[in-house]
Each structure stands twice: as structure tokens, then as C-alpha cells.
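[step 3/7] fold_predict: job queued, chain A
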Amino acid sequence: MAFLGKGTVLQKDISGSSDFATIGKITELTAPNQSADSVEITHMESPGGFREFMAGLRDAGEVSGTIHLDFNDPVVQELQTDYEDGVAGDYQMVFSDPSQTKWQFRAFLTGLEIQTPMDDVATYSFTFKISGIPTYNA
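[step 4/7] structure written:
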């Protein structure tokens, strides 16, 4: 079933015991771009002269987003601290579909960017690199 993205949220476990808090004022959120490596296994007797491959390691990808910039917002301050500390945390995306599907993952920040356009709201963009196996709960 199709659904609008409005209402989808990104949350961070703030206590280490699945106590998730919403990262507020998100204006854009990009779900992970998952990928898998391919490993060539061609040999001298491969049929028809075609290369052969098998699936290699998988990469859960990255999550990126943009929030309104407010230097006094604790979320902005916490993102900056998390980036500087370089430690992974537990996160979840809760989609706005009728089932409120959750995608949980462990990730660390790889990028932060402030944007201050002349004729629009100032924003704070972030990128998380996912580490390990994500879980889905529909």
C-alpha cells in the first residue's frame, strides 16, 4: 500500500535500554542504500566462456537526513557530540505506513553539514553509517 513519507521519524535510543527519543524537525530523511558485493568465481571450465559470480558481503548502507538548525536545540548539540565521540548508537526509523514499520540499526555519524541559504531556513544535515545487521519489524 502506498503512503506519504510525512510522519516518518528517526529515533535514537537515549538510555541503552530501547528508550527511543525522536530526532525532531526533520525535513528530509533518506532510508538506507543497501548493497552487496559480488565475488568472481570464474574458472577455466566455466560454461560458455561466461564469468561466474557469487554473493559476497552485504553493506546495510547509510541513513541521511536534514533538520532545522537551532544551535540551542539539544538534538543538534547531541549530534555534534556523537560525531566528535565517534561511537555507534542504536537508532530506528519508524515509517508512516499503516503498520508503523520499524527499521532498527546500530550506526555512527560520518558527516554533519550546516547549510544557510540566503532565502530559506538554515538546516543541519547528517549522515549515519550503519554497522551490522539491521532488523525490520512490520
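[step 5/7] annotate
Strands lie at 9-13, 20-22, 26-30, 35-40, 53-59, 62-68, 89-94, 102-115, 123-137.
The chain has a mean pLDDT of 92.
exit 0
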